[in-house]
């Protein structure tokens, strides 16, 4: 029994690989290293550099590792703002990539996939917190590309019996508590790493995109979840499929919302730094509020997130930023 982790050199993928090898799993990683970092991947995993849409390459990976019986798929582009400007990049890499992958999985007879979906598939929710059964009407191409991937998996399950779990994450933040792996995007666009770069002095100021949203303080409200807790959810979902359960979708969030201003305040408290901030215009594609109802994952998968406090999450990220101001280039 081995697990193939696609995108295992990325932010959430590398934390999941770390957790898997810690639990003694046999792990094979594929990553193109377009956005991932080789240094983020545990030495205990077997690593291949390549694109998941490259079918001859993927056939070779499966052929060389016949113990693979499950795939965890993180290999996608995931920037909302970029997707608004370059939709075709997202439909090509994410959605077409999934078609290529499922064709090969079907050929080689690997019938289980755990997939990184997103809160962005819900668009502007009608009720809060968001339940898995709520309408999925994305307002950006990133969310649309992932919703299409969910639908493709659904029909491939019915036709070919490839069972899937779609994990719809909300906002991911934090790093391995020992500070050895963390978030490193280039360019960085996410709120918390930017806030901490300002705290660390590697960036001048934070811009908050929009203070006229329909929220208590006018800034967007998001639900933050730690990559270690996400990693555990992926492992639970893989085991759920290995036990022979049906395809399913789960939200992963803390079920608590924090506005961008509240994140800034918490980061000021954790770091003790002033973090200069200016208000800026709205960024395209941002819904007012996204908060998960995650009781389904807790009940069916037995998921118990450990990082339930935003200060705790920020503390882990701050340790990573302080020890790696240039990300993996400092390792
Ligand atoms: N923001 C700022 N200033 C910045 C960066 C971000 O104000 O410099 C704001 C954004 O406008 C938004 C909030 O901080 O209101 C969070 O933005 P991020 O870019 O950190 O995260 P997103 O909410 O855009 O997206 C993330 C993931 C997506 C996922 C989504 C689900 O990147 O993959 O969460 O909520 F779909």
From TrEMBL:
Identify a single GO molecular function assigned to this protein.
Answer: UDP-glucose 4-epimerase activity
Domain NAD-dependent epimerase/dehydratase, chain residue ranges per copy: 3-253
> InterPro entries, alphabetically?
Epimerase_deHydtase (IPR001509), NAD(P)-bd_dom_sf (IPR036291), UDP_G4E (IPR005886)
Keyword terms, alphabetized: Carbohydrate metabolism, Galactose metabolism, Isomerase, NAD
The answer to whether the entry has keyword Ubl conjugation is no
This protein's pathway reads: Carbohydrate metabolism; galactose metabolism
Q: Report the enzyme's class at the first EC level.
A: isomerase
What cofactors does the UniProt entry give for this protein? NAD(+)
Task: Provide the GO biological process annotations.
Answer: galactose catabolic process via UDP-galactose, Leloir pathway
EC assignment: the record states 5.1.3.2
Which SUPFAM superfamilies would you find in this protein's record? NAD(P)-binding Rossmann-fold domains
Q: Which reaction(s) are listed as its catalytic activity?
A: UDP-alpha-D-glucose = UDP-alpha-D-galactose
Q: Which family does it belong to?
A: Belongs to the NAD(P)-dependent epimerase/dehydratase family.
Query: How does it associate, per the subunit comment?
Result: Homodimer.
According to UniProt, the name of this protein is UDP-glucose 4-epimerase
Q: What's the source species for this entry?
A: Liquorilactobacillus uvarum DSM 19971
């Amino acid at each position: 029994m081995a697990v193939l982790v696609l995108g295992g050199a990325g932010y959430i993928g590398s934390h999941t690989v770390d957790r898997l090898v810690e639990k003694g799993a046999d792990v094979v990683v594929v990553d193109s290293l377009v956005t991932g970092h080789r240094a983020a991947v545990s030495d205990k995993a077997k690593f291949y550099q390549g694109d998941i849409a490259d079918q001859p390459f993927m056939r070779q990976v499966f052929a060389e590792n016949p113990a693979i019986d499950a795939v965890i798929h993180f290999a996608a582009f995931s920037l909302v703002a970029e997707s608004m400007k370059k939709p075709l990049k997202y439909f090509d890499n994410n959605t077409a990539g999934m078609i290529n992958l499922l064709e090969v999985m079907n050929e080689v007879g690997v019938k289980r996939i755990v997939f990184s979906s997103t809160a962005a598939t819900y668009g502007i929710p009608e009720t809060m917190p968001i339940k898995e059964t709520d309408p999925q009407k994305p307002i950006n191409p990133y969310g649309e590309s992932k919703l299409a991937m969910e639908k493709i998996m659904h029909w491939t399950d019915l036709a070919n019996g490839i069972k899937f779990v779609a994990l719809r994450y909300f906002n991911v933040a934090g790093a391995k508590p020992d500070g050895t792996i963390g978030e490193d995007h280039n360019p960085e666009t996410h709120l918390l790493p930017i806030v901490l770069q300002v705290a660390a002095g590697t960036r001048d100021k934070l811009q908050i995109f929009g203070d006229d949203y329909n929220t208590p303080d006018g800034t967007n409200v998001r639900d933050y979840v730690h990559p270690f807790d996400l990693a555990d959810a992926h492992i639970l979902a893989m085991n759920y499929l290995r036990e022979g359960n049906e395809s399913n979708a789960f939200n992963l969030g803390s079920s608590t919302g924090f506005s961008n201003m509240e994140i800034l305040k918490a980061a000021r408290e954790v770091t003790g730094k002033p973090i200069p901030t200016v208000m800026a215009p709205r960024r395209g594609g941002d819904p007012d509020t996204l908060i998960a109802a995650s009781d389904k994952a807790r009940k069916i998968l037995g998921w118990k997130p450990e990082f339930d406090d935003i200060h705790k999450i920020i503390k882990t990220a701050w340790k990573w930023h302080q020890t790696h101001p240039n990300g993996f280039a400092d390792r």
